[in-house]
Amino acid sequence: MKKLIIANWKMNPVSLKEAQKMMAGLKAGLKNSKVEVVVCPPFVYLTSFKFQVLSFKLGAQNCFWENRGAFTGEVSVKMLKDTGVKYVILGHSERRIIMGETAGQVNKKIKAVLQSGLVPVVCFGESLEEKQQGKSFVSIEKELKEMLEKISKENVAKIIFAYEPDWAIGTGNNCSSDDALTMALFVKKIMGEVYGKKVKESVRVLYGGSIGADNALSYLENEAISGLLVGGASLNIKKFLDIVENI
Ligand code: 13P
């Protein structure tokens, strides 16, 4: 299976003009057909790329679990689907830490995304405190089980997981590829225990946190890591192309 590289632009850039320039740069520069690329711009820019022929897919960075109604400020999966989005990032640590999003809320979002036929990219990871206290595995197992509550194994198999430890995001302090691999294997082990061998083997786990062209390849050597979720480096199109084109 092709490695999956997802660009999470977060709340950037600040104008549509800039977003269009970045997309044009990607359209012109992405040549590597051995890699699957997904770009997740802010909601407001999505419709302007709806009818463009792109060699990559579009994703969103969040969604709400209801399709419509009195939910001021929210964007539904149905709306996202209409913009041509195929993937939805859920439970990003910035949403959990800054916006107070809970595992229960992420669970509802995962269900809504799965029901719509889009692919959820579910983030998980430990805090620095949990890591220092040796609690990474315990806290991640708990977090995953809460987020996946009452989701069938057929549906869990469709989820893409992204290991993004809080302490590695935007810090330049990337998790070592060995530790990321250990975590990917741990997630697969849990999936095997709870959902069976087939899910264990098929489930995809990405790594994200201070990825750049200098370290990207080291994570992709082992087949247990299916790809990368790239933040800061995806805003510089040249840097992002360096990552993708070197795979
Ligand atoms: P950075 O690549 O900037 O560390 O961000 C990672 C991330 O949060 C991707 O979702």
What is shown here, in short?
The chain has one domain: TIM Barrel. Helices cover 42% and strands 16% of the residues. It is built from twelve helices and eight strands.
Q: Describe it for me?
A:
With 247 residues, the chain is an alpha/beta fold. It has one domain (3-245): Alpha-Beta Barrel (TIM Barrel). It is built from twelve helices and eight strands. The chain has helices spanning 16-29, 43-46, 77-82, 93-98, 103-116, 128-132, 136-147, 153-156, 177-195, 197-202, 216-220, 237-245; strands spanning 3-8, 35-40, 57-60, 87-90, 119-124, 160-163, 204-208, 227-230. The chain has an eight-stranded parallel barrel with strand order 1-2-3-4-5-6-7-8. Strand 3, helix 3 and strand 4 form a beta-alpha-beta unit. Helix 5 packs across helix 7 (136-147). The chain starts with a strand and ends with a helix. The mean pLDDT is 97. The structure holds 1,3-dihydroxyacetonephosphate. 1,3-dihydroxyacetonephosphate binds at residues 8, 92, 164, 169-170, 208-211, 229-233.
